Recover the amino acids of this structure.
């Protein structure tokens, strides 16, 4: 019996801003033609983008091709291209822990217990969600915008700098207490992708699954960048209001242009 993939974890990353773009990737062997994603042709590496607004339609047409070695971005973009310079919304901070690769490596379940101990000891912020990826464990801290909690933080220069610092300090907090854990340090990439819930990791022959961690009110916590920075003692960069506004205006204009193009294609 086949199990469908589910985007509920990624929908949490992609809260608000329906124009912002998410990018999906499917890893396919060189000698295979498929799968086919979206309106494009067959290609060796399948990568496709969709706006948050069109996500349900896109998934309906492409779900069968997302059941193995399938990934999607954590952050979102203002162009249909997965590149760090085009990131427009920050969905979460995260750590990626490699597990079970060596004889003395801990399991993903043991790594989750380690994170729980750090939270109880006051060394780590309670994660919002865990991902058991087949051969590893990801922990995510969902983000919210300080001024508009209905969406995620805008990726202006100051927030990018703070996000990057938080990626580093979170990994450092874990490594300092448990140096035996194998942290994937390149996971600080703003354009990073992570596996889809319900998809199969064929290397590990396991199905990927996510688990929510309830906060005090029973719901997973969603943090502002400032809250995370205050917990770890990270100094927030000085804000440049004119610069951030000009960046936001530029990206909004690009998003609006893409939206109009999509509407024209639908009408045609």
């Amino acid at each position: 019996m086949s199990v469908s993939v589910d985007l509920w974890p990624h929908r949490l990353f992609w809260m608000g801003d329906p124009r912002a773009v998410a990018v999906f990737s499917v890893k396919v062997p060189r000698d295979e033609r498929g799968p086919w994603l979206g309106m494009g042709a067959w290609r060796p590496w399948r990568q496709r983008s969709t706006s948050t607004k069109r996500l349900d339609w896109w998934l309906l047409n492409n779900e069968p091709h997302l059941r193995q070695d399938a990934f999607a971005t954590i952050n979102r973009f203002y162009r249909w291209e997965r590149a760090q310079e085009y990131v427009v919304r920050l969905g979460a901070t995260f750590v990626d822990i490699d597990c079970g690769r060596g004889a003395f490596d801990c399991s993903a379940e043991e790594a989750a217990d380690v994170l729980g101990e750090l939270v109880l000891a006051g060394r780590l912020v309670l994660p919002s969600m865990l991902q058991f990826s087949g051969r590893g464990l990801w922990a995510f801290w969902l983000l919210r915008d300080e001024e508009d909690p209905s969406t995620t933080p805008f990726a202006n220069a100051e927030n990018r700098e703070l996000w990057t610092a938080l990626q580093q300090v979170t990994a450092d907090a874990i490594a300092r207490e448990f140096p035996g854990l194998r942290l994937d340090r390149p996971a600080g990439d703003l354009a990073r992708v992570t596996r889809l819930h319900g998809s199969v990791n064929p290397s590990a022959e396991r199905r990927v699954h996510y688990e929510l961690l309830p906060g005090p009110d029973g719901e997973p916590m969603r943090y502002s960048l400032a809250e995370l920075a205050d917990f770890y003692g990270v100094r927030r960069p000085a804000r440049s209001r004119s610069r951030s506004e000009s960046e936001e205006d530029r990206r909004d204009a690009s998003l609006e242009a893409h939206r109009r193009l999509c509407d024209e294609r639908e009408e045609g």
Notes: The domain at 8-267 is CATH 3.90.920 (DNA primase, PRIM domain).
